[in-house]
Amino acid sequence: MRNNVGLRFKIKRVLERLVHKWQVVGVVAGIGLLLCSLSGIAWSSPTATPLRTHRIMSTPDNVIWGELFKPDSRPIARVRSGDRIIMQTVSHEGILPDQGDTAAFFNQGGIPQNTKSKVTQNKILPDQLKVKSAVKKTGPGPHVITGPIYVEGAQPGDTLEIKTLAIDYRVPYGVISNRHSRGALPGEYPLNNAPIYSRVIPLDIKREIGIFQPENNLPPIQLPLDPFMGIMGVVPADREEAVNSVPPGNYGGNIDIKLLGRGSSLYLPVQVPGALFYAGDPHCAQANGEVALTAIECSLTPTFELVLHKNMKLNAPMGETKDAWIAVGLDEDLNEAMKKSVREYLDIANSKYGITKQDALLIGSAAIDFEVSQVVDIVKGIHGVVPKELFRDVKPK
């Protein structure tokens, strides 16, 4: 009997401590909720349904080829702000008409079809073959694009943040191409008026290295990989802007900025209800300029987190990494793209750090690098890299 009393007493003391602990937590949470409501910061209730992770496959029903999605395109998934998306994407290189038979193209590059083998290493990605056989190419662009994803509550005037949390390789190969007298030297390359010059690039995924074998039997060159999605976008309100997957715009699309890889964010002004997010044009590596025409194009599986900002107004895309803001300028005229990028940098310096725009212009001349994103996508790109460290002593607004 005495032992039972002692046990009941111990249980009572434990319960009292737990109650006290949760009361304290409740008070702290209440204070936090009050402070956040006063400061305008959204705070999720602890009883709210947990955010979800959605897996999006690159099946023929989930992709289009050559164009962007339209305002009336059927969403393949609906998500809430904060949800995560694991999205399969498919590279267009190797399945385009000018590259002939896909199996023969890759076989010549050392990648066998070998579809019956259980070994996935060095095998043509089945989804590439399915896209070529089952998806109609409906636009003039080359890209295979996965989507669209409807974001609950997104309306024109809002901003959608696309966080790239992770990127996984789907196959250990990629392709670089120069074609149709395009690229930075149209009319000069490919040599001898050849319609296309492509190379299959084997990938050492563990070391994140692409192996480029020169055509004249020189030793192979190791190209460092740094994967990112060339296309991330929302649906443009103007259907005419969606007829070709190549040119980027205020809706994002084929921006081709190599800094927007793992750990980055891309901010886009929402154009239509639901935003209708999509992604494609997966790259294993690209240098600024993308002068041949393509990067190392390779199929990837990125993990995104989509965050809706209701009180953030943007007129053009903006990027962010851990260390820098990315001021994006897009225009068919490279000079105009430069002007737009500089203006966006001035907006960033002013809105985030309180620097006057004329002071920001002087600072930019001394400390901000403006780089050519690409010159091969009809609409050319300039991006300014704005180091956060530069403004470390300026209190953010």
Automatic annotation (TrEMBL):
InterPro entries tied to this protein: FmdA_AmdA
Instruction: Supply the Pfam families for this chain.
Output: FmdA_AmdA
| Protein's name according to its UniProt entry | Acetamidase/formamidase family protein
